[in-house]
Amino acid sequence: MTKNIMIVGVGGQGSLLASKLLGHLLLTEGYDVKVSEVHGMSQRGGSVVTYVRFGEKVYSPVIDKGEADFIVSFEMLEAARYLEYLKKDGRIVVNTQQIDPMPVITGAMEYPSDLLAKMEAVGAKVDAMDCLSLAEEAGSSKAVNIVLMGRLSKYFDIPVEKWEQAIDECVPAKFAELNHKAFLLGRK
Fold it and tell me: Which of 75, 119, 146, 179 has the highest CB neighbour count under 10 A?
């Protein structure tokens, strides 16, 4: 049975490393894995989505509406934007950080209120936490991606040691300690 994970966020937040880490981990666990390229504006500020699909045999990297088992989101509005891709019993793992998109910055629109409640109201299981504070506690605001991976790891039957090994294999050695700390803070 194929499982589908969407990683959504804003350009420059590290979603590429998150999808690389996840893909690497799942390959070492013996799954057939397809990771899509980044879709969207990968320059700072644009909406970005990557797909990670894994199972016994995966034929396409693309996830259609209503197929995502998980949406991992770096920002609340991005989670809401891709909500229609979530399965009925799917889960959203989301950073509660709010990053204003251009229409909000220019004053053309307001940032939507009560996004978490609205997502829950349509039946999504929402696991929301302030990943930015945890990343800063670990030593860098740039570790939000690894905090999110730590949180996501709670929903998988893969030992923590395997996740930590994947971090060691995907992250430059000089950032390993910081990323391990971020991972464990997200997992707690």
Answer: 146
Cα separation, 68 vs 177, in Å, equals 31
CA atoms within 13 A on the CB side of 188: 11
Q: Tokens representing 54? A: 């894994």
Over residues 45-84, the pLDDT tens digits come to: 677 889 999 999 999 989 999 999 999 999 999 899 999 9
Check if the beta carbon of residue 182 is closer than 8 Å to that of residue 174: no
Question: Other C-beta atoms within 10 Å of 60: how many?
Answer: 11
Asked if 142 contacts 135 with a C-beta cutoff of 8 angstroms, the reply is yes
pLDDT of 176 higher than 70: yes
Q: Considering only CA atoms, which of 151, 184, 175 is closest in space to residue 72?
A: 151
Q: How confident is the model at residue 100 (pLDDT cuts 50, 70, 90)?
A: confident
pLDDT for 43 equals 58
End-to-end, the C-alpha distance of the chain in Å comes to 28
- Give me the chain's average pLDDT, please: 91
For the chain, give the longest Cα–Cα distance. 49
Number of compact structural domains in the chain: 1
Residue 171's pLDDT is: 93
Q: Which two tokens stand for residue 139?
A: 């030593």
**CATH number for 166:** 3.40.920.10
Domain span at 33: 3-187
Tokens coding 6: 């969407």
